Amino acid sequence: MGPAYRIVTPRLVIRCWQPQDAVKLKQAIDSSVEHLRAWLPWAVNEPEPLERKYERIRHWRGDFDLGLDFVYGVFDREEERVLGGTGLHNRVGFDAREIGYWVRADSIGRGFATEFSAALTRVAFEVDNLSRVEIHVVVGNERSATVPRKLGYVHEATLRRPHPGGGTPLYDTMIWTLFAEKYPGSPASAQAVEAYGFGGERLL
Ligand SMILES: CC(C)(COP(=O)(O)OP(=O)(O)OC[C@H]1O[C@@H](n2cnc3c(N)ncnc32)[C@H](O)[C@@H]1OP(=O)(O)O)[C@@H](O)C(=O)NCCC(=O)NCCS
After folding, report:
1. Residue 165's pLDDT is what?
2. How far apart are CA 192 and CA 201, in angstroms?
3. Which of 98, 75, 95 is nearest to 85 (CA)?
4. Residue 41 and residue 123: Cα distance in Å, rounded?
5. How far is the CA of 68 from the centre of ligand 1 (A)?
6. Which of 143, 149, 155, 176 for a ligand 1 pocket mutation test, highest count of atoms within 8 Å of Cβ?
7. Is the CB of residue 39 below 6 angstroms from any atom belonging to ligand 1?
8. What is the pLDDT along the chain (204 residues), one digit of tens a residue?
C-alpha cells in the first residue's frame, strides 16, 4: 500500500523532498558541514551550489515516484525548517531496507533522530511489509549507535571495512538489524505516527 510520501510524528514531518525545499536544505547542510563531515562521506563535497541541490531533489523525487529508493526530508511540524534528512534505502537486499540519517548541527540531542527512525521503522514493517530493517553505523559514532539501540535493533555484526561503493573511504561498520518477528513490542513500534500515501490517503 506504500510508499508513504508523508509521515507525521508529534514533533516532525518526514516527507518526500520537493523543489521548494532546496534553499532550506542548503541552509541546513551549510550550517552543519563540520558536524556532518565527521561521519558522512558525501559531506566532503559540501557546501555545494544551490543548482546541485535542485538536481539532487529532482533525482530523489524521481526515484521515490518510481519506487526505486526513498529519501526523505525531516521538517518541524510547521515545515518551516529542515531539521535533517533520512531515507528507507533500497540497498540491503530483498525484502529489506536501510535507514540512514543526519540531523542539522543546531538541532542534535533532542531525540529527533530517534523519533524519525522509529517512525520509518513503523512504516517499513506496517506499510511496506518488509521482513528486515538495518541501520549501519561507523564504529566510533556513539551518538548514532544510540538510535538503533534505543529502538530495539540488535547489533548483529561489525563488518571490517565493507565496500560502500562510490569511491568513499572504507570504515569498520556496525550492522544493527530489526526483523519483522521482533518488531511487535519493540520501542520503535510504540512511536506515534501518521502516514499518508501519494494521493494523501491514510496508510497508518
Ligand atoms: C547521529 C545523529 C543523526 C543523531 O541525531 P540526534 O537527533 O542528536 O539523535 P537523538 O537525540 O535522537 O539521540 C542521540 C542520543 O545519543 C546520545 N549521545 C549524544 N552524544 C553521545 C556520545 N558521545 N556517546 C554516546 N551517546 C551520545 C544522546 O544523549 C541521545 O541519547 P538520549 O536520547 O538517550 O539522551 C546526529 O548527531 C548527526 O546528524 N550526526 C552527524 C551525521 C551522522 O553521524 N549520521 C549517522 C550516520 S550512521
Report:
1. 54
2. 18
3. 75
4. 27
5. 28
6. 143
7. yes
8. 899 999 999 999 999 999 999 999 999 999 999 999 999 989 999 999 999 999 999 999 999 999 999 999 999 999 999 999 999 999 999 999 999 999 999 999 999 999 999 999 999 999 999 999 999 999 999 999 999 999 999 999 999 988 765 556 678 999 999 999 999 999 999 999 999 999 999 999
Distance 1 CA to ligand 1 centre (A): 32
Distance CA 20, CA 50 (A): 11
Residue ranges per structural domain of the chain: 6-196
Q: Which atom of ligand 1 is nearest to the CA of 135?
A: 48
Q: Quick one: CATH architecture of 6-196?
A: 3-Layer(aba) Sandwich (3.40)
Nearest CA to ligand 1 atom 26: 143
Q: Which atom of ligand 1 is nearest to the CA of 137?
A: 48
Grid look-up 540531542 returns 109
Q: Please tell me the distance between residue 31's alpha carbon and the centre of ligand 1 in angstroms.
A: 17
Residue keyed to cell 496508510:
203
Task: Identify the pLDDT of residue 169.
Answer: 65
